[in-house]
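Dear colleague,

Thank you for sharing your sequence with our group. We've completed the structure prediction you requested, and as agreed, I am returning the results in plain text so they can be pasted directly into your records. Please verify that the sequence below matches your submission; if there's any discrepancy, let me know and we will rerun it promptly.
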Amino acid sequence: MMCQARFSRAILMGCLVLTLAGCSALTGKPTPESQPKPLETVTVKVYYGAPDAEHLAAESNQITKDSLLMQRAMETLIAGPKNKKLWPVLPAETKVRSVVVKDKIAQADFSAELKAKKSGGSTEEILAVSAIIYTLTEFPEVERVQILIEGKKVATLYGHMDLSEPLGRMAGLLKE
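Please find the predicted structure tokens below.
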């Protein structure tokens, strides 16, 4: 009988210890282990149309640093600038399907809205394509960009530029 009482007390004490240990979760006070780690961000230059509508201008953006960093940079480009003097160069309905880098070439795959929602002239096409290229070539592992629509190479976006091969930065497009 004495052993049984000691055993019962030991179980009760164990339960009490476990209950008290879990109290911080019940009181709403987070324990160090339960605190989410802050997301690390990185500053990335994203390029938009300059006020003169003939050049690109950079805007610095904080983007979550993770395995989808380049895709997030493209999503930021599509979302448009914070600076009201700059203007978006890609249709807001466009989705980024993926961005994959191999041999210093980024393959940026977009939804069909990138091509279907615009019918601009040559300057609009140059700025749209160049904004993608300039933004992605901000990353040291990218030298050229191949633009894809729905996973396939396209000849052109709006009929003025040859997009069948990867392209690098074009000189003279930045507004100083």
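Summary note from our side: The chain has a mean pLDDT of 85.

Kind regards,
the structure core
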